[in-house]
Structure formats: structure tokens, C-alpha cells
Amino acid sequence: MSKILSIALNPAIDISSDADEVRHTHKTRTHNQRQHAGGGGINVARIIVELGGRCELLYLSGGATGELLETMLRPLGIRQHVMKIHDPVRVAYNVHELSTNLEYRFVPEGPLVSEAELAPVFDLLETTDADYIVASGSLPRGVPMDTYLRMAEIAQRKGQRFVLDTSGDALRETLASCHVFLVKPSLGELEGLVGRKLDHESVGPAAQEVIHRGAAQYIAVTLGADGAVLVSADSITRVPAIKVTVQSAVGAGDSFVAGMTWSLSEGRDIVDAFRLGMAAGAAAVMTSGTELCRQADILGLYDAHRG
What we know:
The structure is a single chain. The chain is of the alpha/beta class. It has a single domain (4-19, 32-302), classed as Ribokinase (UDP-N-acetylmuramoyl-L-alanine:D-glutamate ligase, 3-Layer(aba) Sandwich). The chain is built from ten helices and 13 strands. It has a nine-stranded mixed sheet with strand order 5-4-1-8-9-10-11-12-13, sandwiched between helices. The protein is globular, with a radius of gyration of 19 Å. The model has no long low-confidence stretch (mean pLDDT 93). This is Phosphofructokinase. InterPro entries: Carboh/pur_kinase_PfkB_CS, PfkB_dom, Ribokinase-like, Tagatose/fructose_Pkinase. Belongs to the carbohydrate kinase PfkB family.
């Protein structure tokens, strides 16, 4: 079993509730409140451990909400590297409107982080012996857009596999200047990388353009209800979405990345890992609010659809 390090530079306390109706100006009375430790890298680590994998977690934590986050993570059995910052960890809020079955997701930008507070992250990356480094989620305020690029360069120099799941300038800067092992953009994020609109038929060739530039070895493009596409320099694999009853979209992308990375760490080939990632993403939408996917659901969907 390979060792995985998951990085969460912008973690969150995720709170979710139900409401009969969401109306502007008026108070919206909520019920059935749940709260979980969240944010991209934390979700990835939680799911890998749920699957039985060996994953360490590096995250930034500050303020009273940071103390609460650390308390929430402590029982999960994940080895933690906590990097202290001054500003408090963000709190994200998700409301499920029962009358329409719509979700409203409120996601703050996160704390202000200085270069000095970020420095210990790079110190740890220089010393970790992890086989896979997963960088997932947005960057907090004050953190340079080349932060994931610097991480990828360290991993590349040390012969580690770097897995990236982010968006916007952080995604573009990393792929413009460094080679990563695996990146998971959405359709919109891939369009931003190639600078044009894409339909589902043109996704594979467009992703191969990015690969031929030297940006990545593999690209897994998620297409929501239309499935996903796995692309390498010489192959394009399309897999339809697994049909499940949708409860919430929270954590689906993180679950996909976690499932793929865990599967690869177990020695499975890339296509098999891709299919397990899709099963994990589908399992995530079966759970409500900020609850993540369950091992039994992931493996059950994978066994039923590996075809």
C-alpha cells in the first residue's frame, strides 16, 4: 500500500441544514443541522481513510474555528500535520430547500495567510516520504497563485506523484509551468485551460492538447450527469455517469479524487482507478448535506458498474 499525503490549505467547517423555503429578507428557519470537517484536502483524506487507505493530512488551522476543526478531526484516525495561522478557519453553510429540492451553498473565501505562515508547509513537503501528494481545494487569501506549482515542483524533483484538484489561476499557473501526475478539471475548468468552449465530443482531444504541452500525465474530466472522461497522451476513455438518487452535490469531486488516488495506491491500473473514482463520486451524492460517501456504497457501485 502506497502512502498518501493530502493537503488542505483552505479547510472549512461545513454546516448543512434543511429549510422548508428560502426567502429573501425574511428569516429562514432551518432544522436538521449537521456539521463536518471539510474543505477539499480534508474531504479527500476522510474518504481515503474510509476506504481503508493510509493517508496523512496537512492543513492550516487558526482561531477558535480552527480549534473546533482540530477537535472534529481528532477521532477520525488520520495522522495530522497542523500548521498554525492567525486568522480563523472559514465556516461554510449549505441549505437544502425542501419545497424545491434545491441546494444553496455559501462558501467564504477563507483566512488571510502570510508567506511566513505558509513556509512550514513547504518544509514538510521537502521531508515527506509520501508516494502520492494530493493538493485539493481553493487557495486562501494572501497565498500566491503559484503555490500549487511550487508544491508540484518539489514532488516532481523527489519522484512523487502529484494529484491536483483546483480551479482558476491556481490551476492555470501550475499546468503552465510544471508536469503533474493527475489533474481533475470540470468541463468549465478545461475550457479555461484551452481557451474555448467544448462539447462532450471535443473534451478528450482538448485534454490531450494539455497533456501534449507537458502539463500532466493523466487528466480526468468530470461532466456531472454526463459521466467523465479519462485522457492520456494516447487514449481517451469515456464512462457514463452512475445513476443514483441525488441528495447533495457536496463533496462529489473530492470523493472522485480520493477514490482514484486510493485505488492507485492499492496498485490498480489507471482505468480501474478511474472507475472507482466515479463510484466514489456517485456515492457522495447519495448522502445528504455535508456527509461524505460511505465505503459500502462506493464498493457496491463499483462492483455493479465496472463492466
